[in-house]
Amino acid sequence: MFRDAALVAGKDLRIEARSRVATNQVLPFAFLVLILFAFALDADRGQLAAVAAGLFWVTVLFSGLLAVQRSFALEAGDDARDALRLSGLDGAGIFLGKASAVAAQLLALEVVLAAGVVVLYDVDLTGAAFFALVCVLATAGIAASGTVYGAVAAGLRVRETLLPLLVLPVLAPVLLGAARASEAVLGTTSTEMADAWPWVRLLGVFATIYVAFGIVAFGPLLEES
Amino acid sequence: MSTSGSRVLGWSAAVSLALTAWMALVASPADAVQGDAVRLLYLHVPTAWLAMYLSFGVTTLASVLYLWKRTRSQFWDLVAGASAEIGVVFLGLTLVIGSIWGRPIWGVWWTWDARLTSTAVLFVLYLGYLAIRRVPAEPHVRSRRAAIVALAAFVDVPVVHMAVDWWRTLHQEASVLDERRLGDPQITGVMLFTLLLAVLAFTLLYFWLLVHRYRLAKLDEDAEARHLEEALAERRAEGTAEVSAPVPEVTAP
To answer: Does the interface ipTM go beyond 0.85?
Structure first.
């Protein structure tokens, strides 16, 4: 299973590295959203700094949607989905591979975005290690559930509009948890560290649930489509 | 299309609903604090019960039974879809009625209370489920994907609930609203009876709607299958006609 996962993740990341869609389109998009928020909230620095953590995670969520869509667009052409199905790779392995490829891209994006938030919104990142933990857990949740729903929507004519409708409500707890936990170390909202830990646990629970769900459900989802 | 069974169910639902309306509007007293607004709760509570527990419970159960290979059949898929549709309609009603009730009692149409927020998320989750059911695809592919989405929505519900619960308790001191969140805490006598009657009436209504929605869905599927067969037969007839037509011309001279 893990060997299959590594193969699939390697394939996806290699395609991304060569096509440069992630760096040339998804990353600029995320950056653009940060700038748009500054316009929408009147670039009043106090205001932006107060909600920096929330804006960061909304941006990650939208970019995550693009990454998931992209991950399944890779197999849309040339009947590559059928090829993947016939490859003899384990369904759970394919799921883990695709999800970790999405997660790797999102983590890279988060590093750049965090720097962008610190520079553009004039906030301090006070606990980098804690923030990194929040990012890893939240990203695992986003990538796992996104990959499950990406497979559900894959191959349908309405996938671009269907995917956000399916994924975003499911990710509501992740947005809530990640934004609240990040507030402790990012932005001017004063959240105690003690208040932030339950949110970290929630992110962990969410990621665990959806990774497990994906491992079980991905095989049947791929089987016929 | 109705059978004697569903007719009995329909009539008992109608009678108990009429009785509920009479009890709620005439027989039960106005609340000391809420006044006549309390009468909305006789609708609000049963619609919430019908949507969240009955409908979505049945959808989840039917989806599991569909995914389990031994019990897989179109029946469970159609039941899941029919039940979710009813659930979404009644959850929408619950939100609207609650909002109308909240305006005079709380002074606002909406508040970011834990229960309200998680209900709103639940509503959107099942809208997504209905959306995937409407996507044109091969029937068995669509059914399987829909069943998996239903299960994913179901596992999400407790997490959403927990998250939203913490959100409100961690960041907001107990507000004035919380004391009265559940309406009247000491509900007794005729009010309690009305509420229980309303829950019973809506439960009957749910099963009646479910039976008919299922039958409609089944007829839909059958009609679609028949159209397909007719179209296939037509194409075949065309094919054989073209083959047999030139034959006499060749042999005629």
So the answer is: no
